[in-house]
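tool_call: predict_structure(chain=1)
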Amino acid sequence: MKYSRLTKEQFEELHQEFINFLATQSITADEWEDIKKNKPETAEQELDVFSDLVWLGVLGKVEFLEHISPQQIHLFQCNEKSMRLIALRIDNKAVDFTTKEGFNWLRDNLLSDSVEFFNAKKEYSEDKHLDIFKMIQSGANITKGELFTYFANLVKGA
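tool_result:
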C-alpha cells in the first residue's frame, strides 16, 4: 500500500464507491462476503488497493495546504512541479495561533516586527502525491487557500 488504509468511517462514507470498485473487478456482494470470510488476506489487499485509489484521487486535487501550530503558520500552494510556501513565525509564547485569540492578535499585529514572514519555493521529489500525503500525515490540512491568497497578496504588496 502506498498511502494508508481508509478508516472504518471513511469506508462507510464511500460504501457505494467501494461497491462500484468491486463491480469493476466482477466481484458480487456474495463473493465479497465469501472473500472476507475465507480469504481475509485477499480482502485486506482489496481494501488497500481501494484506499490507495481514493487517496490518489484526493491528492491529485489538492491545491492548498495549511499547517498551523502555536507560533507558526505554514501555508502551501501545490503547483504542478513545485510547492510555494508562505510562513509566519513569532517568538512570543503568550500568543497561540491555534486559538481565536491568537489569530486576532496576529491580525492586529501583522505588520509589527514581532511577526516574521518567509516565502519559499520547493520542488517536489519524484512523487508529488506522496510528498503531499506526507504533509497531511504530519498535520497539514487541505484548504481552499483563503489564507494563502490573503498572505500572498500581502507579501506581493510589501
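agent: The chain is about 50% helix and 20% strand. Proceeding to next step.
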